[in-house]
Amino acid sequence: MTPQTITLTQPDDWHVHLRDGVWLPLTVLHSARYFGRALIMPNLDPPLTTLPKVAAYMKRILAHKPKGAHFQPLMTLYLTEGMKPDLIKEARMRGGIYGVKLYPAFATTHSTKGVANIKAVYSVLETMQEVGLPLLVHGELSDSTVDVFDREACFIERVFIPLLKDFPELKVVFEHISTKVAVDFVKSERERLRATLTAHHLLYTRSDCLAHEFNPHLYCAPILKRASDRRALIEAATSGNPKFFLGTDSAPHARRQKESGCTKPGIYTAHIALELYAEVFEAAGKLERLEAFASFHGADFYGLPRNRQKIILSQQSWKVPLQYRIGNETLVPLRGGTSVRWKCRILFQ
Ligand code: NCD
Ligand code: ZN
Q1: Residues 6+ apart with CB under 8 A from 254
Q2: 312 Cβ partners below 8 Å, 6+ apart?
Q3: Is 348's pLDDT higher than 60?
């Protein structure tokens, strides 16, 4: 039997962490290898809270764009309780900002400047609703009394439902959903609510991270959940429902950090992003739905044209490097040292 090959419209990544400085040569290279556009998360340290900071970061990213690549970083702002509604108006007027990211304070990496009291950002959300700028939500309650496995469900109850009621026209993306509860919630709401799905939540469960031995390289936020949640996520991704689209949440941390006594959440997947999603869709018998999930649904929601380039995915086993060098540090990529069964290449027009 000849190995299977599929051609897709070039996809976009609607949620990625490229980091800064010494990280950029590798992270930009990997993302630009597959994606026409990538929505760049603003959780640098310090976070991206002003337009000049965002513009300067975009320039640093573009300095590493490989020659000939069709790659456009789409920038976002980091929502803080101090943000002024005028900033949203200015962002809309100038263009170049595609969303505002809500991190509940202390929910994840570099979220200490995030939002502790949602009411404190209501005037900003009002303006976002008015000008049509999407709110990108890390949907986990960071209350220490709430069990870490229940934080997504509790966030829906206590924050999301009232928020959607108070802002009926606000466009919202529920990022990296990890539970069946979140899938059902997104399905039940009108078209203005969408969700991104990571490859790692589609491929792994909490047992992969926690059973037998703790694997810090599978530790992420939201933490991986149970098999029934994973099944619901796969069903949503492969269903053809335009509410669900690709967002890798590729989030590199140095090996030293990941293997220390205080592991930060984040999994690096950008080096095999499309290959991983292809595995999921293949296993579900829905490869023909990968293109819409990866290349159409997100662009349509953000009001951007679909990409013109094509990519080819072929069944061809290849070995992922054990690690990548980043300045004086190393990065352990997902599946490092093992083989993946798909290989992706881009056809430029
Ligand atoms: C992300 C990071 O490291 O920046 N980590 C993660 O586990 N996903 C932040 C985030 O998106 O939560
Ligand atoms: Zn993220």
Answers
A1: 326, 329, 330, 331
A2: 5, 6, 7, 8, 344, 345, 346, 347
A3: no
**Rounded (5°) CA angle 39-180-213:** 85
> Which-ligand-closest: CA of 264?
1
**Residue with the nearest Cα to atom 4 of ligand 1?**
109
| % of the chain with per-residue pLDDT over 90 | 95
Say which CATH class 11-306 falls into: alpha beta
152 in ligand 1 pocket by Cβ < 6 Å?
no
Q: Inter-axis angle of helices 122-131 and 85-94, to 10 degrees?
A: 20
Q: Is 249 a catalytic residue?
A: yes
248 lines ligand 1 (CB under 6 A): no
Can you name the residues that pair with 287 across neighbouring β-strands?
none
Domain range summary for the chain, segments of one domain joined by +? 11-306
CA 341 to chain centre: 23
13 beta partners: 38
Expressed in angstroms and rounded, the spacing between residue 248 Cα and the centre of ligand 2 is: 8
Query: Can you give the pTM of this predicted structure?
Result: 0.97
CA distance 67 to 181: 43
pLDDT digits (tens, 9 = 90+) for 210-239: 998 999 999 999 999 999 999 999 999 999
